[in-house]
Amino acid sequence: MKELEAKILQADTLEALEKVRVELFGKKGVLAVEFAKMKDVPGPEKKAFAEGLNTTKTFLQESFDARYETLKSEAIHAALKSEAIDVSLYGEFAQKGALHPVMQTMDKIIDYFVALNFAVQSGPMVEDDFHNFEALNLPKHHPARDMQDTFYFKDGGLLRTHTSPVQIRTMMQTKPPIRMIAPGTVFRRDYDITHTPMFHQVEGLVVDAKGKVSFANLKSILTDFLQYMFGEVEVRFRPSFFPFTEPSAEVDISCIFCQGEGCRVCSHTGWLEVLGCGIVDPNVFKAVGYEEVSGYAFGLGVERFAMLMHKIPDLRSLFEGDIRLLEQFR
Ligand code: DAH
Prior knowledge:
Elements: H1 2-10, H2 14-25, H3 30-36, H4 43-82, H5 101-115, E1 119-120, E2 126-127, H6 129-132, E3 158-159, H7 165-173, E4 178-187, E5 198-209, H8 215-230, E6 235-242, E7 245-254, E8 271-280, H9 282-288, E9 293-301, H10 302-310, H11 323-326
Parallel strand pairs: 1-4
Antiparallel strand pairs: 2-3, 4-5, 5-9, 6-7, 7-8, 8-9
Helix pairs in contact: 1-2, 1-4, 5-10
3,4-dihydroxyphenylalanine (DAH) is lined by residues 162, 164, 203, 242, 244-245, 276-278, 297-299.
């Protein structure tokens, strides 16, 4: 019996134990052979013989079951160990895109004016002379047209040089009052550290009955807007000229690089020019057939805002698609 028990205890895998099971308990196994001997045992001894055999069988069965449990649980632990996943290991990173910094800036600008109930308008990038120039009080041969280097098509069409033509289109389609902004792409023949041939502007226009819209309104909304964009800056309005506004102003903020002390970025003036604006020129209202109204307008370059807000030195880098620049705006 000890020998048989040793076979069970020596089996070190479930497969080996299975072989032992067949050898001991199988149809032709050791126990079956022993039980077969019953018939040859003389009558009076049969009972004792059978009892002895049953005790052996029970003992071996218990020993087998215990061994089976041990090996089974060892096998499960081994499997768990070999299939284990190290959740602390780095996986493969999914590439994640993000809005371009110019669009992020555009969205921030739009958010401000939408909150103040300005409608967002758009117009075509391929414009005609009337909407881009004529109706904006820039007649042919007007010297102010030199301010804008225009891409022309052979048929006289052109790539819009500013978003101001959307003012004209909106006024010709709707009756006052108007409260709109026009974000969009514009084009000029320009290329240097602060200019690219394609860039973005946001135009603004407010029109209401005569006497209802004043320069004071314009000043207050733009001051608040610029402080929303740039934080605690000083805002100054400087007289200027635009054909479509009279009076006109350019708006400066105190230099965010040197806090107005004077540095290279602000050309030692302490101020940064950020937008143009003014009271809509009567000739513009005449061109769209508006009478007895008053209004203000403004226009700004989105790239310039993005450059200043993120301290980007060369505007062209915004369009080179260098992933190292773009990754910083995720
Ligand atoms: N259209 C001008 C430009 O492209 C920007 C501008 C200035 C728009 C003054 C306006 C304005 O509406 O009032 O430089």
